[in-house]
Each structure stands twice: as structure tokens, then as C-alpha cells.
Amino acid sequence: MKARVKWIDGVAMLGESASGHGVVMDGPPDLGGRNVGVRPMEMLLLGMGGCTQFDVLLILRKARQEVTDCVVELEAERAESDPKVFTRIHAHFIVTGKGLDPKRVEKAIQLSAEKYCSASIMLGATATVTHDFELREA
């Protein structure tokens, strides 16, 4: 896997993936940013959310669960001093579907957290990563 990050202006950057997609990242105004994109640490958190959601949806699809919507709400805390790594991350899944089995949803989240989600497992080296979920009927 390859990626490229090009400096634009101030502290704004354009991240480009090998798959041909781009995303603008920027810093806060007090550090020279213009607030035109997400912060790099926000991008890490979003990446974890996308990674774990991808796993959970794939596992539930294989388990023949009829999911109609899935949202992962992420909340993180960072260390007070440099390097300001994540110290705590909580992922709250809101899974909507028809007749969802709570045990299968719980198992899918557990498998993602412990076996499949590279981002969660990597970030778990410095942060306590927790998960919970709620089910909604479609």
C-alpha cells in the first residue's frame, strides 16, 4: 500500500491514496491552518471507524443479517503532553435492520476488534479501545 501527502499552503496538505482518492487535511488556525480540512489525528480516528464498520458489515452480511444502516460514533481522548497519542477510544455502533440478532452483532464487533480491524488493533497499542452497540428495528 502506498500513499502520498503533498503540502498545499500554510499547514494544509493533500493526501492521495494509491486507489486514486484525495483528502484535504489542515491544522487549526492558531497553528497556521485555515480550517479547510480534517486534522491528521481526526483522520486516524475516522480511519479506525471506517475499518471496524467495514468488518462488522461484512461479518453481518455473511451471517445473513439484514442490516439497513450502520453508524459508528467515535469518542477519543488524547495524552496531555507530546506525543499526544490517543489514550482512550470508544466506538458506539448503531445498527439498524430487520430482525437483527444481538448476539451476532456483538460477535461481529468482537471479531473486528480482536482479529480483523488493523486500525483498532494498532491504535490499541497506546489506547484503551472499547465498543458497545445499540440495535434499531428498520
From TrEMBL:
Could you tell me which SUPFAM superfamilies the record lists for this protein? OsmC-like
Q: Pfam families, alphabetically?
A: OsmC
Judging by the UniProt lineage, the source's domain of life is Bacteria
What protein name does the entry list? OsmC/Ohr family protein
Query: Which species does this protein come from?
Result: Imhoffiella purpurea
Phylogenetic lineage: Bacteria, Pseudomonadati, Pseudomonadota, Gammaproteobacteria, Chromatiales
